[in-house]
Each structure stands twice: as C-alpha cells, then as structure tokens.
Amino acid sequence: MNDTGAVSNASSILDQFRNQTPQSGQGQGTDELGRSEFMDLMLAQMKNQNPLEPQKNGEFIAQLAQFSSLEQMESVSSSVEQLAGEFRSTQALQASAMVGQSVLVPSQSGQLGPDGKMDGVVNVPASTSSLRLTVVDESGAQVRQLDLGSAQAGQTTFEWDGKDGDGNAMPPGAYAIKAEASYPQGTQQLSTMINANVDSVSLGQKGGKGVTLNLAGMGQVALSDVQQIK
User: Fold this and answer.
1) Which pLDDT score is estimated for 7?
2) What is stated as this protein's family in its record (predicted)?
3) How many CB atoms lie within 10 A of CB 227?
4) How far apart are CA 19 and CA 11, in angstroms?
5) How far is CA 18 from CA 14, 27, 122, 136, 227, in A?
6) Predicted pLDDT at 118
7) Domain 106-195: assigned CATH number
8) Looking at CB atoms within 10 Å, which of 65, 133, 181, 185 has the fewest?
9) Which residues of the chain have pLDDT under 70?
C-alpha cells in the first residue's frame, strides 16, 4: 500500500470515530472504537503520512481534543444517570413510608370514608368576611353548606362531619368541595386541598412519571404534589 492510501484509510476511520457518540451504560461493540483503537489509528496515521505533506500539529491536537470531549460526555452522562437512579430510589423509599398515612394534596374533591368525615384546607388569597364551603355528591346535588365565617389570608382548615343539612349521615363515597369567599368586587372561588389516605405507591419506569401515590378514592397523585403528611 502506498503512503497516500494508508493516510487516506486512517483518516476515514478517524472520521468515523468522530461521528460516533457512544451511549452510556453500553459495552464496546464490534463496530465501536475505543481508546486503544483510536490511539492505534493516530499512530498509524502519523507513521504512514506523506513526508512531503505531513499532517499539521493542529490537526492532531484537534483530533485528540475531540476524543477527550467524547470521553468526558460519556462520563458525565453515566454520572447523571447514576444520580437519577439513586434519586428515584430515595423517592421510592420516602413514598413507601407514607403508606397507611394521610397526606394533604391539591384537590376539589375527596373521599368520605367509614369514619364519616372529610377534612382539608382552603387557600385564602386575601382576608374575607365570609368563607363558605359547599359539599356536592356524585350526582351534582348539594348535600351541605358550611359557613366558616371570616378568614385571614393564608390557609384555613375545614372539616365536614359527613352529614347533610338535616343531620343525616351520608354514605361513604366521593364528594366535591366548592369553596367561595366574598370580596368587595364579588364572590371568588378558591382552591382547596384534601387529606387522603395513601393505599400504595407506584414507581414509574425510567423516563416515566416517577413516584406516584395511590390515594383512597382519589386515584394517583405525584409525590411532588404532597403538601403535608399527617
């Protein structure tokens, strides 16, 4: 093989290496170039280059810098993936400790359990002279209206005893909570948070939603949505 052909072949393989970005966590395959292969090609390129037209030092330096950059990218990607895995494991452990406990989550509805009560928090943006809660059943019928009186800006707790306006105990099930406050400019509907029991925990697959809590009668909520653990 003549000098020009050797240099051309080595250069083309080096170009192939520069266009490949190894995936983190994967072993070296037969069609991937590693550190030793890259250095062998570099030495072959230097040995077989045309002495009349030698490759410039800057070109060798650029190739080495690009190889170093690829190695660093692979190392960083692997470290990030490892940290993400450890974070997911920590989240799963934290969430599993919540099973059987009550958590406070943003919701406009809750589950009236066998204990015959539902409680939570109303987010009050500004002081109001009149704060009211309306309880509605699954058919949309009004069950009870609670007058919480005046409230300061912040969070105001509430509790429904599970009875309708006539004092009759309502059956367990899902009920909606509508909170309203009176202001000079009119009535404003406010957001609420409901306490619910954690039945189980689900750990999403890699790239999925992550850790979720399965709440009694309320379905799934993200672990990040939990505002308080009772």
Assistant:
1) 44
2) Belongs to the FlgD family.
3) 12
4) 12
5) 6, 18, 58, 65, 49
6) 94
7) 2.60.40.4070
8) 185
9) 1-43, 45-68, 70-72, 74-92, 204-209
The enclosing H or E element of 81 equals helix 57-96
Tokens representing 102 are 């009550």
Nearest to 168 by CA among 114, 115, 116, 119: 116
Round to whole Å and give the CA distance between 42 and 63: 9
The total number of residues written for the chain in this structure: 230
Q: What is the pLDDT of residue 45?
A: 66
- What are the structure tokens assigned to 114, written together? 């066998």
Q: Specify the pLDDT at position 95.
A: 72
Element holding 147 (H helix, E strand): strand 142-151
Residue type, 18: R
pTM beyond 0.70, yes or no: no
User: Distance of CA 55 to CAs 4, 25, 45, Å?
Assistant: 12, 35, 9
Among 72, 77, 75, 67, residue whose Cα is nearest residue 20: 67
Could you tell me the CA-to-CA distances from 99 to 91, 112, 178, 214 in Å, in that order? Answer: 13, 19, 28, 9
Q: 173 pairs with which residues across the strands?
A: 112
Q: How far apart are CA 180 and CA 128, in angstroms?
A: 10
C-alpha–C-alpha distance, residues 173 and 162, integer Å = 10
β-partners of residue 29 are none
Closest C-alpha among 213, 230, 207 to residue 92:
213
Q: How many CA atoms, within 13 angstroms, populate the side-chain half-sphere of residue 66? A: 17
Q: What pLDDT score was predicted for residue 114?
A: 85
At 105, give phi and psi (nearest 5°): -135, 150
